[in-house]
Specification:
alpha+beta, eight-stranded antiparallel barrel, globular, Malate dehydrogenase, DUF3455, signal
Amino acid sequence: MRVAAAASASLFALAALASPHVSHCDVSKLSLPLPNGTTALTPPAQAGTKLKYVAVGLGVQNYTCGASGTYAYAGAVANLYDISCLGRSPLFPYIQEIAYALAEAGPKADNVLDKVLGGARLKLGEHYFVTSPSGSGISPKFDFTKAMHSSSAYVLAAKAGNMAAPTGPADVDWLQLNDVQGELAKSVYRVQTRGGQPAATCATGQFSSVPYAAQYWFYV
């Protein structure tokens, strides 16, 4: 409970710093936190591409257990909150840690994030999976249509690169995603991940939702 209380206090401080400037801060000096020397993920190379939003996502990674007794990926569901205005805060590199601490503390503590950051008008939207345009498999979607009051404020993306999380095997991979549909972003990066990995073995037919947190960087 002490961890949850400390995390909640940190979130209130962050919300006070950011509100009411949601999505209107200068993010041009923020640098995508990729490990030195990595080639698995690359910064946006398209001319004119620029950073638009940085968000913290908190939700679950979903898995189903196959006949082999191991989990297969079944998508994710998460809420995304704008942290673009917190780039100069000393807490910025650790926001996903704060969010994940709440997730680990249980559903009641988890709800604090939505109440604090959502109440400060920092909720950008939702992240979930839909059927791929090809009709086979699933694709990640980032949906900001409600917050932006625009039917085109979404991006349906496809994976362009991935790498194991530098923080260890308990954390889901870092990803580079490129747009397939929508006008929200040309590319999205999932970095600074915490949690989200399933157990090594399972019973056939079992379903698992594993809490996770991450930073999402949106480039337009």
